[in-house]
Amino acid sequence: MGSWALSAALLCLGSTLVYSKLHKDGPIPAQGQATKQGPEARAPEEEQPVTKDCGIAPLKGAMEGSRIIGGTRAAVGAWPWLVSLQVQDGNFLVHICGGALVRDRWVLTAAHCTKEASDPFKWRAVIGTNDLSRKGTHIRNIRVVAIIVQPDFILETFVNDIALFRLRKAVRYNDYIQPICLPFGVFQKLDQNTTCFVSGWGRTKEEGNGTNLLQEAKVHFISREICNSEQSYGMIPNTSFCAGHENGTFDTCRGDSGGPLMCYLPEHKRYFVMGITSYGHGCGRRHFPGVYSSPSFFQQWLTDHLSQGNTIRVFSMDTVQCQILMALGSIILLGVT
Length: 337
What we know:
The protein has helices spanning about 1-25, 225, 300-305, 310-335; strands spanning about 70-75, 80-90, 90-105, 105-110, 125, 140-150, 165, 195-200, 215-220, 240-245, 260-265, 270-280, 290-295. It is an alpha+beta fold. Helix 1 runs antiparallel to helix 4 (about 310-335).
């Protein structure tokens, strides 16, 4: 009996160590992953872009509907991958950042959003709504069980400003809830002529308040040469780029952080999350467009984590089962001694 209990204990210890290592270290980032220079240089690619079952809004045509700072109210269902990431404040949930649904249990957002609260259990993901003040049968309010911040993120400079929120349960896709496509293999197609939109519940003016009604605005890519000029930011992170309008007419603002820059590629007839709203100098200021972190530069990191879901569940279950086996072993040992 003693040898059986010892074997069970060793099995449990091994599973627990593997599980702990998986969560502590995470996937190893690809070498040189964060050294590219924007759409002008080629970002890491897959053999083919992921275009199946993503990036389509069932309730509106690909280029229809009404068209943040200088924006207008978004039509219901226009952006079914938009997520409001909220933090519990007493009896209320407060909108902190936007996010983009990229898998049925994963939300892509900005790493700097987690400075408000690093404990995942304080967060909720609200999906399937344009109006945060209303409840509806198609709206989902889901707990967050894990926050994975890119390990090389630097808060002071917004370098590598990207994070993943894992939901407690998978969402079911419908007309109001859909994933957006990741830009692997297509990011290099982004240029000033690409049709792009931003959308969020953030401030509609720099000193204003956030809004419960989802806003949207059409923007375009702005070259790194302009964005890095002395008249503008001087230097932005290598894994980021600018988008908006040079005169500041349309821009993102506080509360829009983490939300997607959604670009439509007609050859694929889908929207791709080309960027994640990261930071800006004020809101809607001339020469200071929004700065967006690009998921394409983190392809290996993202795909490693997005494919971990089943592995994490298996290790979690193994750990629980091992704890039960160890408890039974202890009882047996006590019985024979």
